[in-house]
Amino acid sequence: MSTDARQPLLPQPPGPRWSRSALWPFGPIVAKLLALVAAAVLILGGALSWWVSHTVQQQTLARAIPLQADAVDLVARLLAARLDQQQKLAQTLAQGLLSRNLDPAWLLAQRGSASLLNLFDGLLLADMQGRPLLQLGGSRLEPYTQAQPEMLALARQSLSEGKPMLMAQAHKGSEPGQMDIVHAMPLRLEGGEVGGALLLSSHMSTQPLLPPSTEAANAHSRFLVLARDGQVLAPVENGSRFAGLASEPGLGGDWPSSVATRAMQTRVMSEQRDGYLVTSVGMPLPQWLVVKITPMERLVPGLSQREQWQIALILLVAAVVLVLALVFLTHPWSTLFRRARLWLAGDSHALAGMARVQTEGAVWPASWGEAGVLWQVLQKLELQGGELRRSLDQLQALVDHAPLGLLVTREGRLDQVGLQAARMLGYQPQELLGQHLSLLCLSGEMHANLQEQVSKDLKMYGHFDSEHRFLRKNGSPVWVRMHGRSMQSLQRSARPLAAAAGDSSLVWVVEDVTVQRMARGQPGWKALHDPLTCLPNREAFLLHLHDWLQECAFADAQAQAQARGDGVSMQSPGILLYLDLDHFAHVNQKDGHEAGDLMLCHMATTIDSVVRPHGWVARLGGDEFAVLLADVSGEQGMGLAQSLCMAVQNWRGLHEGQPYLMGVSIGMVVLDASLHTAASALRAADMACYTAKRRGRGCVELHSLHS
């Protein structure tokens, strides 16, 4: 009996099932990542040379621009100092001539070795019509017969404008950097009229003003001193000073037409034009412009071709190393992928080779570091997701059952709606989610006005508090009081030391005030309320305080009777606060009564929001308010009073771009129904407030009725 030589003689244990996909060790994500790295090598290898060269050029240029700006600024300052010195000398000579009643003989007598006149190279004295009276010129200021037309024109201009003038002239055939500077000084007599003009000229060379430098770029740079009409007064480097600016490299285009404007700017300006770095600074007094022009290739030489290839080769080698390192680092992921794929296929041999599943809470598979950490993170995220869902449910329950309606809007749309707010508007919360706020407005115009008012108040005061008329689902109107703040301001208040997130949401507390609006139209309501702030007035507050004191006295008498005369007072505690705004009169004086009324409305809202629901607020008149805190101890009352001080001080408002800085002085009285009436208690609180103002304002002063 023959046997097949290829058949094994002994039975072999079952081995792993190999497939074509099992031969490829990487998963789709890792394979695409490796392909992306290989493609990046080809792209970066070609682009690196340009990138490195461009980066080096930009860094070199960033260092070269300030150096060239400093050089130009130094030349301008030295030149300005030279001109200023000459002008002061000319003023001295003009004052001396005025003291001699414009006598030309005095000038002729000044031609000595120690005279200031010898510091100038030319002189022209003109009468009040601009005609020459005395002309001197030459190395020793000898008289000459014919005055230059340019100097006569400058004399007439100085006489007509009545102020010192300056003129610079560069003559053909003179040495580079040489120019004539002419100072024209009007001669004002004692009566104030101009009696003539004194012109003094001198030769100036700009070459000694240049800073010495050995930089290679300076060998190819050019300094120019330009007049406002574009004439080249002093070319420092070689070139024709009478050639047009358009022929100068880097100064073509619209640059010549802007010389007059640039000459009045004292800030150094640098710009790149046609392959040149052009730096200029103006000299407003003579209306000159100092310019330095440097070729860009001398400042930022590029990389050679050999250097570019060397950098590209280094990048290519680094990319190959990166690919190999990536293959090594992704080995745990690839192994996890292969085993997971075999496990999903139900291969029992593969399952035997996988890491064993450990107990609950352990990492799987434990032998693969990064993959194991990822598995653990996914488990924790699942647990945290359940906790997050429970937290969101609890938050929604709090929003739904809050005593006031709560809304959250984002970019004008309702992002979160509380149950009370939805019922107030006649909707279910799900019906309002995602809807635009314009759905609740009577018209598009009213919605636009509401948006404008909200944006203005949030910018000026940091919050919005107003009443608006909305439509219920059934079409009936409802008046709603809206108090809103941005999510950023709330986060900033909760975490003052942490950076607030960039959330544009608005949080609203809404309250149905339809009944209150109807009551305001009644005559009885108007008699007991302030029409500006809608708070109770002084009469209403005294009535309320009187009733409360009587109730406390009656309750105290009953409690003492039940205690069988043990002497222990059982009255309900109460606090009376008297508030007077600090420096409010400055608001009315500076910005008018309209701004003052707006300020009082905001202060009333701020005070009411701080003491609610413990207190009862009223406006006594002017900038004075009163607060009755029932069932509040003295310690609690002091805390609320200090909170009021901080709330008013922290309030920020703007009027025409100017911020308001407000404060409040508070007088505090611990009420005792057995000692005083409503009028005496209010008078005592007023006295305590006056004491607080004398102590420096912005504080709380306690006045006890027992003292």
Relevant terms:
alpha+beta, Beta-Lactamase, Alpha-Beta Plaits, 22 strands, about 45% helix, disordered N terminus
Structural description of this entry:
With 707 residues, the protein is an alpha+beta fold. Among the domains are: 401-520, Beta-Lactamase; 532-704, Reverse transcriptase/Diguanylate cyclase domain (Alpha-Beta Plaits), CATH 3.30.70.270. The chain contains 21 helices and 22 strands. The strands form five sheets. The chain has a six-stranded antiparallel sheet with strand order 3-2-1-6-5-4. Strands 12-11-15-14-13 form a five-stranded antiparallel sheet. A five-stranded mixed sheet has the order 17-18-16-21-22, sandwiched between helices. Helix 2 (28-99) packs across helix 7 and helix 19 (593-611) packs antiparallel against helix 20.
Span between termini:
129 Å
**CATH hierarchy, class of the domain at 532-704:** Alpha Beta
> What name does the CATH topology of the domain at 532-704 carry?
Alpha-Beta Plaits
Structural class: alpha+beta
The coarse overall form would be: flat
Fourth-tier CATH superfamily name of the domain at 532-704:
Reverse transcriptase/Diguanylate cyclase domain
Relative helix content: 40-55%
Largest sheet: 6 strands, antiparallel
Radius of gyration: 45 Å
Parts with pLDDT < 50 across at least 5 consecutive residues: 1-23, 213-217, 236-242, 354-367
Adjacency order of strands in the biggest sheet: 3-2-1-6-5-4
How many individual β-strands? 22
Q: How confident overall, as mean pLDDT?
A: 76
